[in-house]
């Protein structure tokens, strides 16, 4: 996972995540021209540090691969998920629970026997790609 301190290096350099190393290098040199403390003493060096760190992480293929997988996990975790409590579902049939998706579709959760939901489960909308996390 990205920790809170690790910024999105692609954003820092202003490049697309699929940018090749030549584009990344060009973006870095362009930003370094602007932000290097030797070139511009009025700019605080934090910005240059950020740019340098981003470039270091993205210009080395193995560091970049490691960063990309952390970034992917973070993005996945962020888009994941609205957490909905089971009590917000409507039980329309015995042990069959429904919750309306914002697309107009439905999340359906069937619970076998009378057991309560034991742990959180991911439920897919029946009409779109949204998933929610249903908590007991
Ligand atoms: Zn939906």
TrEMBL record:
Q: Which GO terms describe its biological process?
A: ERAD pathway
Presence of keyword Metal-binding: yes
Q: Which keywords has UniProt assigned to this entry? A: Chaperone, Iron, Metal-binding
Query: Where in this chain does the record put each J domain?
Result: 8-71
- A cellular component term, taken from the record's GO annotations: endoplasmic reticulum
- Residues in domain DPH-type MB? 80-136
- A GO term for molecular function: misfolded protein binding
Role according to the record: Co-chaperone for Hsp70 protein HSPA5/BiP that acts as a key repressor of the ERN1/IRE1-mediated unfolded protein response (UPR). J domain-containing co-chaperones stimulate the ATPase activity of Hsp70 proteins and are required for efficient substrate recognition by Hsp70 proteins. In the unstressed endoplasmic reticulum, interacts with the luminal region of ERN1/IRE1 and selectively recruits HSPA5/BiP: HSPA5/BiP disrupts the dimerization of the active ERN1/IRE1 luminal region, thereby inactivating ERN1/IRE1.
The entry describes its oligomerization and partners as: Interacts with HSPA5/BiP; interaction is direct. Interacts with ERN1/IRE1 (via the luminal region). Interacts with DERL1.
The record's annotation in PANTHER family points to:
DNAJ HOMOLOG SUBFAMILY B MEMBER 9 (PTHR44360)
Assigned protein family = Belongs to the DPH4 family.
Quote the protein name from its UniProt record. Answer: DnaJ homolog subfamily B member 9
């Amino acid at each position: 996972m990205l920790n809170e301190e690790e910024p999105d290096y692609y954003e820092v350099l202003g490049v697309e995540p699929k940018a090749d190393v030549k584009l990344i290098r060009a973006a870095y040199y362009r930003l370094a021209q602007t932000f290097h403390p030797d070139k511009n003493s009025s700019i605080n060096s934090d910005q240059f540090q950020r740019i340098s760190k981003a470039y270091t992480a993205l210009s080395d293929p193995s560091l970049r691969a490691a960063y990309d997988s952390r970034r992917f996990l973070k993005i996945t975790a962020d888009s994941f998920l609205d957490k909905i409590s089971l009590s917000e579902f409507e039980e329309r049939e015995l042990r069959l629970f429904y919750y309306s998706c914002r697309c107009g579709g439905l999340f359906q959760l069937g619970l076998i026997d009378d057991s309560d939901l034991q742990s959180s489960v991911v439920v897919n909308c029946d009409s779109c790609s949204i998933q929610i996390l249903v908590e007991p």
